[in-house]
Specification:
The structure holds two protein chains of two kinds. By secondary structure, chain A is α+β, with helices and mostly antiparallel strands. Chain A has helices spanning about 25-35, 85-100, 115-120, 160-165, 235-240; strands at about 10-15, 15-20, 55-60, 65, 75-80, 140, 145-150, 170-175, 180-185, 210-215. Chain A has a five-stranded mixed β-sheet with strand order 2-1-5-3-4, with helices on one face. Chain A has a three-stranded antiparallel β-sheet with strand order 6-7-10, with no helix packed on it. A two-stranded antiparallel ribbon of chain A has the order 8-9. The chains are: A alpha+beta, B alpha+beta. Chains A and B meet through loops of A and α2 of B.
Chain lengths: ~240, ~475
Amino acid sequence: MSGTKKETGFTFTIDGVEITAYAGQTIMEAADEAGVYIPRLCDHEGLRHQGSCRVCTVKAGGRSVAACTQPAAPGQAVENETPHLTKMRRDLVEMLFHEGNHLCPICEASGNCELQAMAYRLDMTEATKFPYLEPCRALDASHPDIALDTNRCISCGRCIRASQDVDGKGVFGYVGRGIHRRVAVNGENLADTDAQVSDHAISAEVCPVGCIIRKRVGFAVPIGEREFDHGLIGHDIEEKRK
Amino acid sequence: MAEPRLIEISPVTRVEGHGKVTIHLNADNEVDEARLHIVEFRGFERFIRGRLMWEVPVIVQRLCGICPVSHHLAAAKAMDMIAGVDQLTPTAEKMRRLMHYGQVMQSHVLHFFHLAAPDLLFGFGAPAEKRNIFEVIKENPELGKRAILMRKYGQEIIEATAGKKVHGTGAIPGGINRNLPIERRDHFLATVDQMIEWSLDAVKLAQDYTLEHEDLVAEFGSFPSNYMSLVRESDGALDLYHGNLRALSSTGDMIFDQVPYTKYHELIVEDVRSWSYMKFPFIKSLGPDAGWYRVGPLARMNTASFIDTPLANAALKDLKAVTSGTPNNSTLANHWARMIEVLHCVEKIRELLNDPDLQGTDLIAKGDRREEGIGVIEAPRGNLIHHYKVDEHDQVTYCNLIVSTTHNNEGMNRAVKDVAIKHLSGKEQITEGMLNHVEVAIRAYDPCLSCATHALGQMPLQVELFNADGALVDSQTQCV
């Protein structure tokens, strides 16, 4: 939750850069305001923090914490872009590629995909070192306006929170436990739910990958005009410092 | 008496994809049988099933890295039909045409200068180390420079219309996702006249070769066949992007004409043979023995009534004059035809660049949804058919692709056998240069074996020699 009482501001540092924060702000919220980008996948503006993807892991007080859920503290020295943390984040992203079926060359989210963009930012220049699991997941195209290709799902849960907290519906939820946990729909298939293309959960910015698809608009945005064609993921935040 | 032998050429080099040739020699060292085998398997027709219709033009273009635009556009045309769009907006159609002309230009230039020129310049039997583009550049730097810059021009046209030089996303069901900004137009206009001039020189080079080697061209892998292509609906002119189907016999008799391509399955049947992953299409009304046909640049020169760009049309008249207006059956004349098409494409590119519709903003048309779509286009290597069915959930349930190289399967096999008989029969010693003659015949078709099997791995030509009992006696492999 963002801080509201500006008069209670305090400072802490991220990689030596002094950041002003306010009571109640997380490390990530304060960093975003100050123009310091901390990589993230499961966190999204306007949705409650979940802290599950761990891509935003930073070192604070010698401990590894999720920047999206850890409150900022006065005088804290936070490490963000260290070689160790960057490698850890790259390994996490590689594991996401290894776990699903992410075929960027033919995916309509390519260029707008946060997973792909994160891989570029973290300098993942080769195929994942982990053996591909190549799961067999069916495409759910039952809904007239929406399709669900869970081959590309990274279980970030953003659609679950958007559906529950913003749309008030609960179209999506987690099923299974441990490594078997998956995002599923609340019905036999998507057509069996009350999902609508106007739902916030279905909007292009909520799903960070190409899992939730709004039908018949794929590839309408030309190469060169896609979100990450002209800048690394996080450049919009970093530009605040320039 | 010598032992019967089997020669295997594997891989066939300087073509796209994986193939091998087997030549069976009998006890008298005469060629009994010679075949081009396509040894790769891809299966796009199967794994596209279940995917969403608007993904298809982007997925199926991955069949090929040389002319993916052909698959991209053929699939997009099929998806237009499914989207209920029978007429694109002017900007969409002209952007797609510009993309296609850029593609045919770069693909033909690649084939003629990079793949075929070493044979034509240095001779079919020249040492293997001589037969490559680097030696062409060393021998004739100006030609080499033009080859590279002409291909670059075509590739940049593709990039401007599809977003990337290879595997872009320009065409979407019902239209296109971009127009051509003025600054890009001006960039291409600045050098288009140079491209026309170089294309004219390329036509002359291919024409001179054909006429100076009249005897060789007349006998090398040449035989009568039927020819098929799209022609323009109104007047039978050459049209690489859209039109109706026309087929001619080897003597120029019309087999069918101006048949909408959506009826292709009423005209063409695909035969399957056990020794190749590539099918053998034939014209249904003529049967498999008489109904096989050829497609591609020479086929198009044979079927087209004329070309609607002046310089290419003048070049077409020169080509047709060689056979007094009847179809030209010489396999090697494909190179001349290919360069005429390069000239036509550049003329068309110039025409389009001067058309303000390219800067239009009405990019996508809408229509009433259909369940089935067929898209046909004249790809660099010939006629290309994409046929899909899509269910009410927008998922593909059926896909049939007949690609140019598949249309030419029987023709290529006949060319292989013809050249093998003429150049290998009766020889005790089979040299690498003799084997290259077989490859030259295949290369004239500019086959794309990857597309034809709808491959992964290296690109090897292998020649195998079998004895009369069918046992493998000898094989030679050429590597890229």
